[in-house]
Amino acid sequence: MDYKWKIEKHTKTAFQNTKDNSKYVELVRSGEDYFLRLEKLIDKAEKEIHLQTYIFENDETGNRIASCLKKAAQRKVEVYVLLDAYGSAALPNSFAQDLVQHGILLRFFSPLFSLNNFYIGRRMHHKIAVVDEKIALIGGINIADKYRGTKASKPWLDYAVQLNCPAAKNLQILCSDYFYKRGSSKKIPPVLHSAGRALVGILQNDWLQRKTEVCDAYTNAFIYAKEEIVIVSSYFLPGNRLAKALKKTCKRGIKTTVVLAGISDVPLVRRATEHLYSSFLDHHMRIFEWNNSVVHGKAAVVDNKWSTIGSFNLNSLSCYGSIEMNVEVHSVNFAESLRADFEMVISQCSEITKGSLRQRAGIFNKLGNWISYQMVRTAMLFLTFLPHLRFLKNYRL
C-alpha cells in the first residue's frame, strides 16, 4: 500500500467530519505556552520520556527543561534524550554530564567526524517530546530562550502540535528506535490514527534510508490542491520537485500564499530566498515577510482540510540530507485553527509585490541575492551529496 493511496483512502472520511474534539489534537505556538506544556508533560510522566531535539541550549529555558527531566529521573521515570551533535555542539560537557549523573540516558546523534563517515550533511533535526506513549509534542521548536522569548525579544515564530491520541504511541516507538540507532532502518509504512474526529499521521523523512514521506506529502498536497495553499516557511529554497509542484499549482489558479522571513538567523539564506521572489510572483504567488521576530516555522494548510507541522524545511537539505519528522492532520477544524493563526500573522506582515520588489531591487541588491543563492545552492548540493555517497556505498554492499 503506497503512501499516496493511503492518504486518498482516508481523507474522504476525515473531511466529512466537520466537528473535531480539540482535546485530541491541539495547535501550539512558540512562546511560554509551549514550554509550560512541555514542563507539565515531563512533571506528569510516570514511566518513560523521550525528548529529541536539534538544539538544546544552556540558557534559562534549557536549564528549566533540564531541571524537569532530572526530577523525572529521580522519580524513576526512564528519560531518554537524543540531541544532534552539530546543532547542540555548544552545550557544555558539564551540562551533559550532569544530566547523565542524574540518571538520564543521553546520546548525541552522529558526531561530525568518525573513523568511517563524515556526517555533516545528515543531521537529526527532530523536535519531539513523548510521554508514556500517551501524549506528545511535535513541531519545529527547539529548547532555547529564543523560542520562548525574553523581556527583550519576542519568541521566534514557530509551531507544534500536542497529540493526546494513539499517534503518541507510534511516535514513542519511533523515538525509541532512533535512540537505539534502529529507527530509520525499519520500513514502517505511515499510518493514520484516529484522534476524535480527526486523522493524524506521523511522517518521516530520511532519504538515506529511503523514507521521503514528508516530501511526498507536501508534493501530493500541492498537486491535488483544489482551492488554497498557505505556507509558513523558514529557509525557503524548494528544490526542483517541490518548486515545480508549487508553480504548476499556481498555474492551475490555486491561491498560494507563503509567509517568509523578513528577519532571519541565517541572512545568507534569506537573501538567497529573495532571489526567487520574482519567479514566484510571476506565477501569481502571494509573498509576505514577517519582521516581528525570526521565522522558524515549518507549517502548511491546504484547502482548509489538510495541515502539516514539524521540522521539515522546504529545501533540498530537508528533502535529501537531514532526518526530519512531521505530523499531518486531516481535520477541518484543526486546519481552520491553523489558518486563522496564519491570518493573524499575515495581518502583521509586509506583502512583497512586483512594485515593492522593484523599489528594493537595485543592481547591487540583485547581485548580492544572486551570489547568495549560488552559494547556498552549492552548499546544499554538497551537504546532500555526502549522504548520497553513503547510500551508494550501502547499496553496493
Overview of this structure, please?
With 397 residues, the protein is of the alpha+beta class. It has one domain (22-355): Endonuclease, Chain A (2-Layer Sandwich), CATH 3.30.870.10. Helices cover 42% and strands 23% of the residues. It is built from 14 helices and 17 strands. It has helices at residues 3-16, 32-44, 60-74, 93-101, 145-148, 167-179, 213-223, 240-251, 267-274, 277-282, 316-320, 332-346, 354-360, 363-396; strands at residues 25-29, 48-53, 78-84, 105-109, 127-131, 135-139, 159-163, 192-195, 198-206, 211-212, 228-233, 255-261, 286-290, 298-302, 306-310, 324-330, 350-352. Strands 8, 9, 10, 11, 12, 13, 14, 15, 16 and 17 form a ten-stranded mixed sheet that branches. A hairpin with a 3-residue loop joins strand 14 and strand 15. 48% of the residues are buried. Mean pLDDT is 88; it is low at 1-20, 114-118 and 389-397.
